[in-house]
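Request: Give me one sample?
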Amino acid sequence: RRVPFAFYPVYQSQSTKIHNNMNKNKKNQATELSYYGLYLLNYLKENHPDRATDTAFINERADHAAEVYEQSRLEGNTPDSAQELAMAALLKGLHFSPYNTIVEVFWNEFEDEIDRGYAPTLALQLLPVFTPAFARYPLSDDFAQSPAYDRLYTELTGAISLITEDEDGI
């Protein structure tokens, strides 16, 4: 019985190894993020995917969170307390997610019309369409607990209903 080629050991010349390592280092430098940067990137991918490619925003927020942590420790706060302050600074203004709101409307109101797995993709595509609707509301970190959220939710439900009724809509 023959062993597939992939299982044979592959030997590279020393210059090939060096070249490959140099390429890996360049890639790592371009994508290297701090703890706060990685945390924020992951958070944005899950909650604000439209902002997940904004490296300037991510780096600025991550640097600010690190500064908050450092300053808090210098002021005598415990590591846990300093971490809590740093995370609050990192995520300020990002707790409410228009993207997640659209996904929630799809899941709750259109489960028969739109496949649950397709809802996130569709929500990301429709996010720019609904930007004017979101702009009419005071979107803060605690917006989802306000009466205005219910009005927005109803408005989104109506707009999505119109889109799903249109044969070319979804």
About this structure: The first helix runs from residue 14 to 31. Residues 1-30 have pLDDT under 50 and may be disordered.
